[in-house]
Amino acid sequence: MASLKDIRGRISSVKNVRKITRAMEMISAARLRRAEQRIEALRPYADALRRMTARASQAAENIPNLPILQERESVERVGILLITGDRGLAGPFNSQILRAGNQRKRELDEDVLWYAVGRRGVSSLEFRGFEVGGSWTGFTDRPAFADARRVADGLAAAYVDGKVDRVEVFYNGYISPVNQEVRHETLLPLQQADVIEQAEDEDDNDGEEHEDIHSRALWIYEPDPEEILARLVPDYVEISIYRAMLESTASEHGARMSAMRNASDNAGELLDDLTLAANRQRQAEITQEIMEVVAGAEGLR
Questions:
Q1: pTM listed for this prediction
Q2: What is the C-alpha separation between 161 and 105, in angstroms, rounded?
């Protein structure tokens, strides 16, 4: 049985840990609010760009002869981008992205070339011995658009150079501070992109009560849709990655805030148990001392 000194030492250690987890919870809560504001500011622009790209691709009679827009006849290698965090202590935030990526690899018949944002994803891929085509770290707490542009340039270059024939992305979509979901989207080629398909579905739902010819008549393209599409595609890739990174950042702060709150609650329960154990041990020591005094007194008679 642990001594009273050992129990008090554990109580002190648990109190120090609880101070740290509470501080981390407060920091994550403050950062989460800023991340939510950035997402709210970006979503209207990202949705508008998505709809514009979808409409331009639908109106274009011929896909512009750009390398990034050329769809492969056969897919032999798939590039998978995992968006994780640079730090841990966020519950299942990082592990669920890695599991989803591994599950997708098992589903594919093609070879996989991995890309990762965040130290956790990079280190996990390297530890497993997977081939990593590109990695970006050091900015997941507060990603900037320039960071998303670097990632987009790397993925676009890999697609244009023929290193990959399709690009898919996995990230944590932000729903609420306690609820995040793993999202899987196809980024390239444009003809298979999930975001474009979603935008087309939204347009169809919005225009159910109008004829297609009337809906198309509302749009006049200057210059041609093909030229507009050629200009929009690089922006579409960048803003899609930037949005995924912001969603992931908010999800990370929310997951870490929840994890630290649970850790603080568990520390409080452990303190209650240790305090009870310390009181029992102290009472046992006092009882033992009384018995020794009584026994000594009896021996003096």
A1: 0.82
A2: 22
